Amino acid sequence: MSAHRHFDWICVAVLVCTVLITTLFMNGARFGIETVKDGDAEGSTDSAYFTKNDRDGSWNSATATRIRLSGDSASVSGGGAYVYDGDVVIAQAGRYVVSGTLHDGSIRVNAESGSKVWLMLNGADISCSDDAPIRIEQADKVFLTLAEGTENSLTGGEAYSESALADNVGGALFSRDDLTVNGSGTLRITAGYKHGIDANDELVITGGRIVIDAPGDGIHVNEGFRCENAALTVRAGDEGIHVQGNEAELCITSGSFDIESAGAALKSAFNMLLTGGSFTVRTQADGLHSGGSIGILGGVFTIRAADDGVHADSAVSISDGRLLLEECYEGIEALTIDLSGGELEIYSGDDGLNANGGSFGGMFMRPGETAAAAPASDAEAETWIHISGGSITVVNDTARDADGLDSNGDIVISGGSVRVSLSSSGSNNAIDYGSESGGSCVITGGEVVACGSAMMAEGFSGSSTQCSILYNVGYNVAAGTEVSLRDAEGNILLRYAPPCNFSSVSLSAPGMKLGETCTLVIGDKEEQITLTDVTTGAGESAGMDGMGWGSMRQRGDGGPNGGGPNGRPGFGGRPEGMTAPSDQGANGLVPPDGSFPPAGFDGEIPDFAALPAPPDPNGGQGRPGQRPDMTQQEPEIPAEEAVPEETVTGGPHPVSAYTWLMVSASSLVLALGILFAVKYRP
Questions:
Q1: Which of 225, 351, 227 is nearest to 290 (CA)?
Q2: Which residues of 516-533 are buried (b: 16+ CB within 10 A; e: fewer)?
Q3: Where does 433-586 have alpha helices with state H?
Q4: I want to staple 450 with a disulfide (CB 3.0 to 4.6 A). Which of 178, 317, 403, 506 is the partner?
């Protein structure tokens, strides 16, 4: 009787609690409740790039299900997996250890979409003649661990079955969902069909030694590739590592990489960020190729490429590391090139640095291309070379129409050390800029010795704030002859022994003072030169059709010393941040403040959002020439302290209109429930 008598009020209390609980869960974060998100879930934006699970290559396998491969069959000890028609199927989340040899079958992961699967290879040798030896069909994420001290192998056949082809299986290790490879063991992948590793979603590698031989890409990824602390050896009939998603990023922070490929060694359709690691590259295409931007903040690179050493359709920025381009067509090519640190040594068959944007503003043809096949130019795209630090050496002793530093727009040197040596044969320019289209070559700091041909030699623009000399020798100077410059007190300001013969040299150093007399020494020849202008010409007037240093210098920007009747007034298309100071007139320049590119990599991994989107021919945020802003770096969060995606605590917060709407609707339902209960109560 008592329960019956209070039934109405019990119903009211239940409804009130329902409304309160609903409101609390809808706005829990606003009331100080922490929202926890799985750090390995798809769509996670953990700024550390690697989760704790990604890095855990030594997880406890004591309670794991054991899968023993024995030739043509297999046995399973534990739950979650079974053997079917010669294959091993993993159907549940959990931990599994695989060992032994499977002659013609595969390990298939087909679990619930929210499942996490840990799969340890502990001395496993798996071959499959018509499918992927490991095939991940469905899971939230799979962690493939290479057990310490073990050798493991995957061997795929040359022709896949119709069902595998219908499922778009394209590699010996195939994953339709997120995949992490970790541990410290060895994995050898021999693909007979297409790719070594084919990942539809994200691929993360945080350890192990992986050796890949594939007729297609060594590693082929759709939605992003991140790698640290691994040793990869890749032999590929196409790209070495290829990330093809429109907004997918390629990020390598450490490890060693030995790549030999017919296509680009590292290729990304979007942005590429390299902060460390050791790379040895031999390729019949570009060494590094990006459809967006390339940021190099560290690492050691040795590259032999049939095409460009480093190519980006948008921007290349280098702030640290060492790049040795032993062989390449062009050294670094992009719409904009910003160098603030590191050591670059470039041996090119054409230009050393080429700022023309490739297919977005280039005026070039590869060997064998026709004019119709060459990329069209884009007159609206800003292009420049900016050197603010580091050591840059460019050597080319073979080409007859090549440049050391070549920009279709501007060249700005505000720091660093630049050495250029080009053969004096042909119309080789040590420094070439877009003077005919309004560009300028400005030096405000750093030191330069650029040797090449006198035929089309260009010096620095009159708007420079650091003195320079363009000296035409009047004859070919033998390769290896030392060039040096002394100030009035006999102090050595510059010294360089160019490995190529030359007939012209351009020099600039901070110790060169306007009005003072310097001594230029070329071999056993000495000449005293008084710096009467910020850009001083000296030596013999030489070159084709009388176009020696005197007439070519008039192609400058119309500054106080570089003008003449055809000099261009003003400075067009200057890099962002360049402004005209009051004491330099309309053409004077102040270099950028040094905030871009970053001074170096100190363990932090920049957010990829700070890099520009790839050039967009239809306009938008990917406009060619957009300067990448990598100054906003997020500190790396240690894996064991990874912060959930959303953590909001304390403090008053306004309640959204949606919340009020839901509360009002719940209150109305509550009121109707009370009226109903009152009217129809027993």
A1: 225
A2: eebebbbeeeeeebebeb
A3: 549-553
A4: 506
As given in the structure block, the two tokens for residue 488 are: 């009035």
CA distance 411 to 446: 13
The 10s digit of each residue's pLDDT in 350-359 is 999 999 844 3
* pTM summary value: 0.75
Helices (H), 428-571: 549-553
Please say whether the beta carbons of 649 and 32 come within 8 A. Answer: yes
How many other CB atoms are there within 10 angstroms of residue 647's CB atom?
11
Contacts of 565 (CB under 8 A, 6+ apart): 554
For the CA atoms of 359, 364, 369, 373, the dihedral, rounded to the nearest 10 degrees, stands at: 40
Give the tens place of pLDDT for each residue, 257-311.
999 999 999 999 999 999 999 999 999 999 999 999 999 999 999 999 999 999 9
* HEC assignment per residue over 56-94: CCCCCCCCCEEEEEEECEEEEECCCEEEECCEEEECCCE
* Token couple for 537: 């010409």
Report in angstroms the alpha-carbon separations of 433 from 195, 447, 612: 42, 18, 24
Which helix H or strand E contains 273, and what residues bound it? Answer: strand 272-274
Cis before 597? omega within 30: yes
The amino acid present at 651, given as its one-letter code, is G
Query: Whose CA is closest to 254, among 207, 198, 322?
Result: 207
Q: Could you give the 3-state DSSP secondary structure of residue 423?
A: coil
Q: What are phi and psi of 673, to 5 degrees?
A: -65, -40
Locate the domains of the chain by residue range.
2-35+650-679, 389-598
